[in-house]
Amino acid sequence: MKWIKKLFCGNTEATPSNIEAHKDEIKVPVSFLSAQNIVYAGEEVGLSRLAFKAKQLGNKYVTIDRNIYYQALNNIAKGRRLDYSIQRSAKLNLLGIRYEKEGNIEDAVKVYEENIAMRSNGRHAYDRLKIIYRRQKDRENEIRVLRVAIGVFGEDSEYNERLLKLLSKTKEPF
């Protein structure tokens, strides 16, 4: 955490002109230290203390160890992808629910299928497809959905029990 020491030790009147980045550091705008980026980066990266001090001093730029910066960027990208995935999954589930309430099962299946194609870690789409395909007596698709769910949630999930039960009634191999 030498980059924190650089900011907190020595010259507490640091300004953009007297904080120069060395070869193992990178100079970034303080705006990079937004609350959302700090949350995504994770506490182990330690950006929150740096952001607080830099904003307190009125700095427009901060220097950060390159490894810490790239770790933060990687964590931020992962966090944003996860947020997008969760939001997309929720929207698709709500749309599927609406279609089901309207009696439009065909469109509900389409949006639930889109949801499981993303390998969403929410159970709603898998559960609804499993039920819809069971009601339609479409074992092939029910088995496919169960296999995808097991891939997402693991073999210890209730999906494995249902799959074993279905496969024991058919001659299809595991």
TrEMBL record:
Q: Please name the Gene3D superfamilies in this protein's record.
A: Tetratricopeptide repeat domain (1.25.40.10)
Record has ATP-binding as a keyword: no
Q: Could you tell me which residues the TPR repeats occupy?
A: 89-122
Q: Which domain of life is it from?
A: Bacteria
Q: Which PROSITE patterns match?
A: TPR (PS50005)
Q: Do the record's keywords include Metal-binding?
A: no
Return the InterPro entries for the record: TPR-like_helical_dom_sf, TPR_rpt
Record's keyword terms, sorted: TPR repeat
Mark the transmembrane ranges.
Answer: none
What name has this protein been given in UniProt? Tetratricopeptide repeat protein
Species for this entry = Alistipes onderdonkii
